[in-house]
Amino acid sequence: MSLTERIAALEAELENAKARTADEVEKFRVAMLGRNGAITELFETFKQVTSEEKRALGQRMNQLKQAAQARLETLRSAVEAEGPAQQGPSIDLSAPALTEPLGSHHPISIIRDRIVEVFGRIGFTVSHGPEVEDDHHNFGALNFAPDHPARDMQDTFFVRSADPAQDRIDGIDTTITGLHPNELALRTHTSSVQVRVMETTKPPIRTVSPGRVYRNEAISARAHCMFHQVEGLYVDKGVSFAELKGTLDYFTKSMFGPDVTIRMRPSYFPFTEPSAEVDMSCTICGGAGCNICKHSGWVEIMGCGMVDPAVLANCGIDPEEYSGFAFGMGVERIAQLIYRVPDLRMYWENDVRFLDQFTAATFRS
Ligand code: DAH
What we know:
Blueprint: H1 3-16, H2 22-33, H3 38-47, H4 51-82, H5 107-120, E1 125-126, E2 132-134, H6 135-138, E3 158-160, E4 168-169, E5 172-173, H7 174-177, E6 184-186, H8 191-200, E7 205-214, E8 226-236, H9 241-256, E9 262-269, E10 272-281, E11 298-307, H10 309-314, E12 323-330, H11 331-339, H12 352-355, H13 360-364
Parallel strand pairs: 1-7
Antiparallel strand pairs: 2-6, 3-6, 4-5, 7-8, 8-12, 9-10, 10-11, 11-12
Helix pairs in contact: 1-3, 1-4, 2-4, 3-4, 5-11
The protein binds 3,4-dihydroxyphenylalanine (DAH).
């Protein structure tokens, strides 16, 4: 390769030289201008050419060296300007953080937790029972007569008809779960948990039992075949009706505000005597009368009563020694009085545009 050709080749090489890191810039410098670099070596060769050639190519040789130095500077400053970003993707530390969308508590869970918390403050524990119940806990021990209409197929979802000979149901050993092999049903109320607690706990008992219940009802804007209740039970020596009323007054004021009042209307439940229905002064109209309270100024919020002595006895508690009160409320009903959702079915559609609107914080404000 002639000197001219070598100069041309190096010029082209300079033109195409690239460097992405400081190391590569240094490699380029060594390869071109270092002690054994291509341009340095070319100058050694140049020393030996004829003076004629020197005259002809001297200027081009100097231009080549200057071009190499210029190229070196360009590469160096480009790498410095890019900085460490060349090592990986660039990060803008001043950019706003990306937020993950947060889930929210279901409105029914919010109200259920709030009810449980209000009773927790006055010493009520939380107890649970199975959703698949036997006749004894859902009806029998609670004094429902064998022909009581609530046992009817119209109301109750039966899981399995009677077959006392079999003590395994769907692979579950019913002697372990405590479920009786006959007449299994989806519980129609959480009062069944009362029975389970009284059968296994020595008074004093103070407990609330939140949970799902099931009734064979047509689904509509105002009814569902699955809903939630919170049952309450207080059993001790000398428990009075006045304490029941005081407890429920405390609950309603804690839940709905200090201005609400309650009234009790005589009623009937098989497991309480006397029994009452509890009304609360309408929170919407303040008692003046509106659509929600059907212009009566009162809305019904729960059932309650003194535990029937026969029920205490059914559960192994001596009614001569102990008395108690019980109450039961629908969580959806309490939620409706707070959120006023126009259609009950919206609670179960799991549409995030609906669910997103509920937070515990919203409730407290
Ligand atoms: N179990 C009743 C129902 O489902 C509610 C109820 C009423 C529970 C009175 C009670 C009570 O403990 O004393 O409608």
